[in-house]
Amino acid sequence: MLTHVDHIGIAVTSLEEALAFYRDSLGLAVHEIEEVPDQKVRVAMLPLGQTHIELLEPTSPASPIAKFMEKKAPGIHHIAVAVADIEAVLANLKARGVRLINEEPLTGAGGKRIAFVHPAATGGILLELCQSA
Ligand code: CO
Question: Which residues fall within 8 angstroms of residue 104, CB to CB, at 6 or more apart?
C-alpha cells in the first residue's frame, strides 16, 4: 500500500536562504512555492527523482513549524510516504492501535490528502502519509 518516499520535509527559517543552497548550489529545480494557510507555512517543492525535498518556512510564530524549531532546531521535520489509499492505510493503523496525529486526512500542499502518524509510534520520526490528488 506504500509505494515510495514522496518527500522529505525540512523546517527552515528562511525559504530564500534555503533556496540559495538547494536551488542555486545543488541545482535542484523549484516545482512550486505555495502558501498553506492551514499549516501557517510557505512551502517550496523541489523534485528529486521520484521524490521531493519540501522546504517549510513558518509564516507565523503559531505555525507548527515555528514551534518545532523552537523546541528543536531547523532540520528534518518529517518523512512522507506515498500511499494509494490513505483511508485504508489509516483504518489499518487504527485497527492496530497505532498512535495517529490525524485520524482523518487533511489537505496538504499541492492538494494532496495527508495525515501524520505520531513519532511515538515510528521510532521518533514524524511520518506523513500522502495520497496524490
Ligand atoms: Co510534507
Answer: 90, 115
Record: fold of 2-131 = 2,3-Dihydroxybiphenyl 1,2-Dioxygenase; domain 1 (3.10.180)
> What residues does the ion ligand 1 have nearby, CB within 5 Å?
9, 54, 80, 128
Site of grid cell 510557505: 42
pTM of the predicted protein model: 0.92
Per-residue pLDDT of the chain in tens (133 residues, 90 and over written 9): 899 999 999 999 999 999 999 999 999 999 989 998 888 999 999 999 999 999 999 999 999 999 999 998 999 999 999 999 999 999 999 999 999 999 999 988 888 999 999 999 999 999 999 999 8
Ligand 1: distance of its center to the CA of 99 in Å? 18
Task: State the distance from the centre of ligand 1 to the C-alpha of 95, rounded, in angstroms.
Answer: 24
